Amino acid sequence: MLRIEVGGASIEIAALPVPGTADDCFVLPLGYGRKFEGRVCKGAGVDAYPLRNENMWSAPAKVTKTGTTYPLATTQMHFAVDTTPGKGAQDRMPLLYREGTLDQYNEDPGFVSHIGHVPHSLSIYEEHQFEGAKYKWGMSIDLSTCTGCNSCVAACHAENNIPIVGKDQVLVGREMHWLRIDRYFAFAKDSHGAYDGDKLESVAIQPVTCHHCENAPCEEVCPVAATVHDIDGLNVMVYNRCVGTRYCSNNCPFKVRRFNYFDYFRRDPLRSTGLLQVQPDYYVKTQSGGKTLRAMQFNPDVTVRMRGVMEKCTFCTQRIQRVKIATKNAWVKKTDAQKKADPRVAIPDGSIVTACQQACPADAIVFGDLLDEKSRVSKLHKEKRSYEMLEELNIKSRLKYLARLTNPVHGATVVEGAHH
Predict the structure, then answer these.
(1) Distance between CA atoms of 276 and 167, rounded to whole angstroms?
(2) Could you write out the three-class secondary structure of 229-243?
């Protein structure tokens, strides 16, 4: 904990060291802390506005250590499968998050395919066949335009009834985000070949959600067939079958599956006292139902999940079904000649917009039918800078990324990053 004093006012706030912050520099965000009375906001963070006054600049400022600590909940290293997550992330970053300069792209537009090696391999399992599928839903995410603003995460929560578990549960790795924003710090190596934490080269931001693999590793280990492919080839959940073994989460290479340890939808917004105290609402009988007022916040088109059930991204299947039904109803009213001309009941490109895509201010997310050669997502999947994460696993992901392109100024003075 730090005590910051400016102009006779002072606050005590937790410090989080972040790579890239200049030496002897502190960044103090405003607007997150609350100190006034309220059922939800009371006790949330620290209000930093006492340090603010009518002057544009305030000096001097004094920062001292209080000698106390404060627990901060961060999910950045959750679900890391490497025993030394920092080193593992550094080694894997060039493969997971691919980027290059504009000069590299102009010289070789397909430079992305030369990063890493993907051996030819065949699946030992019987692969799914989708010849009869009318649609093949896919997604493309452009890493050049994504800013990591988390609007997609917030939209996904609201659309899909994803529970807010609270800080006490996040601290023990039980957050429920279907979509997360991974952040990587790239450090330079020292003379001994080790990564130097004081020499930050770049920061990478990457949205990660369910990739809806055609050879889905999660399906192969589920003992009750609770995760299966639907008629369009999407990897979906049958909640009533799920018995909560969590084998699927263990076998998912992207770590995007979330388990309901409690009936989180019953959580009272009041903050629990004590660091790890569990809300008493979690132990209410499952069949007793939640509060009527609280139920009004849920999307009626999306199932509310119960304790002991696994869940994950569905590519907003409720939105897909809504458009499919409307399109089929319109197709039925067509003449026989029109039906023969459109036997597939084609859905116009852009008709289905996922929640994350709708909320993205940078238009970094594109969703559509890969069987439609003219669709945006189909064209983006064929781009030379398009790549599949963990392609070496032969999982045939329906989600692909467009490698990030940068245009650095040649000869510019570069100041080495540091952290306090």
Answers:
(1) 9
(2) ECCCCCEEECCCCCC
The residues, any chain, with a CB within 8 Å of residue 3's CB and separated by 6 or more, are 10, 11, 12, 63, 64, 65, 66
Contacts of 404 (CB under 8 A, 6+ apart): 97, 98, 99, 100, 143, 144, 204
pLDDT digits (tens, 9 = 90+) for 254-291: 999 999 998 887 766 555 555 455 666 666 555 455 56
pLDDT digits (tens, 9 = 90+) for 291-300: 677 778 899 9
Strand partners, 356: none
pTM over 0.90: no
- Cβ of 122: how many Cβ atoms within 10 Å? 7
Domains in the chain, please, with CATH?
1-70 (no CATH), 85-406 (3.30.70.20)
Residue 405 gets the label, from left (phi > 0), alpha (psi -120 to 50) or beta, of beta
Report yes or no: 232 and 367 within 8 Å, Cβ to Cβ: no
Q: Which of 9, 125, 105, 137 is nearest to 62 (CA)?
A: 9
- Cα–Cα distances in Å, from 312 out to 156, 208, 285, 297, 326? 11, 12, 24, 20, 26
Structure tokens at 79: 């679900």
